[in-house]
Amino acid sequence: MKLQLPRSFTFRLALTYMSLFGLSVLVLMLFIYWSTAAYMTRQSDALIESEITGLAERYDMLGLEGLMSLIKQRLSRQPTGLSIYLLTTDDHTRLLGNLNRWPTAAEDATGWINFRLGNAEGDSIAVHEARARRFALSGGFHLLVGRDISPLIAAKERIAVTLAWGLGLTLVLGVVGGWWISQRMARRIETINRTSREIIGGDLSRRMPLQGTDDELDHLANNLNQMLDRIQALMEDVRRVSDNIAHDLRTPLGRLHNQLDSLRSEMQTAGRDTTGVEKALGESEALLSTFNALLRIARIEAGYRTEGFVPVDLAALARDVAEYYEPLAEARDQSLALQVVSGVQLSGDRDLLFQALANLLDNAIKYTPPGGQIGIGLARADPDSAELVVSDNGPGVPPAARGQIFQRFFRLEASRSTPGSGMGLSLVEAVARLHGMQVVVQDNAPGTRFILRFHTLVDGTTARPPAQRP
């Protein structure tokens, strides 16, 4: 399963960092805009205050004539400048200035007035924003001094646009950087995941690749490799001990079985009762079957047989298994139904697949009461996969025990009185894992359904299940 970048931890981490970073940049830029705009406004107000102070001093020194003379000088130097002057009488009758009348806008508590003024620009009139302050002169005169703040507003807008573009570029660079970092991290994590899947598949010789960067992921991969070395060594020891025990015990058990068989023949010749010997022979055969199953599972788990995989016609295989067990089902007055589709092939070992399907069918016949119904089904789930199903209407498997029935020697309490060693389903699980199958146990209401899900061959060609080596 390939790692999906939007759902990956590295992408979410990068997205979270980018969001926090973007929020920090937004707060910083808002502060920059607020402080810059406030500074520019204060500078403009200070300039107006300075002009009012100068004009008030001239009025105190030279009177109304001196004030009007100074205003005329300033207007003559900048006839179309940003400064605004208006000198009026007590009833706001205009005496001098570059405003036609007193602004109608209300002033605040400190005497500041924000209003709009129209300036002729060619054939049209442009409306500009202005800010001025009223100053009362002795003698009942009023002086309005201000400035056209349109350039100030335009500068604020340019600052806001610049900061917005800066924020946008920051977010874009953050997204690109987060995506690049996430992809780089995702590739390394996917490499570890891919190697882990191969190890889960049974290839314990695989190891986590090192990048040589000596970072946290390299340290993690190195620790995992050391752990895998230890696990592989322990599993080799356990497998070797198990194989040796099975081999060493199978030989004397075989000799014991042969000796019991010879003793039975001698006792039958002498006309003696062989009941006890028959029981001993049955026990020895059960022990030999158990050891043979253990050795067979060990060989399957070692993956020694994957090299000989060939395309297997599962429909023909299911028919052969059903034909083999049909007399046994008839002897127990059970109906055995076969429903398969043709053309389903799997790359595998036919003998092992036959044994796995036979074990499932043998269990179904063994635990289904007389008159019960047993089914073998083979159907396609989609064009690339199929399901092999063995079902019955017997007592079923309790949901709590479905995760344990594939353990070696595990048997339900209700089945302990029946013959068997508890190795049949362990063998099925080992064969399924070797062939890349998924084993699913479901309730058949009543009874049990064992489902083997797998990827099929398409036109005779497909990737084989991963080789499983010790």
Task: Describe the protein.
The chain has seven helices and twelve strands. The chain has helices at residues 9-77, 150-200, 216-269, 275-302, 314-331, 350-367, 424-434; strands at residues 83-88, 94-97, 112-121, 124-137, 141-148, 310-313, 335-340, 345-348, 373-382, 385-392, 438-443, 448-455. Helix 1 packs antiparallel against helix 2 (150-200), helix 3 (216-269) runs antiparallel to helix 4 and helix 6 packs antiparallel against helix 7 (424-434). A five-stranded antiparallel β-sheet has the order 2-1-5-4-3. Strands 7-9-10-12-11 form a five-stranded mixed β-sheet. Strands 6-8 form a two-stranded antiparallel sheet. The chain folds into three domains: 9-157, 2-Layer Sandwich (Beta-Lactamase), CATH 3.30.450; 216-302, Helix Hairpins (Orthogonal Bundle), CATH 1.10.287; 306-455, Histidine kinase-like ATPase, C-terminal domain (Heat Shock Protein 90, 2-Layer Sandwich), CATH 3.30.565.10. The model is unreliable at 458-470 (pLDDT under 50). Helix content is 53%, strand content 19%. Strand 9 and strand 10 (385-392) form a beta hairpin. By secondary structure, it is α+β, with helices and mostly antiparallel strands.
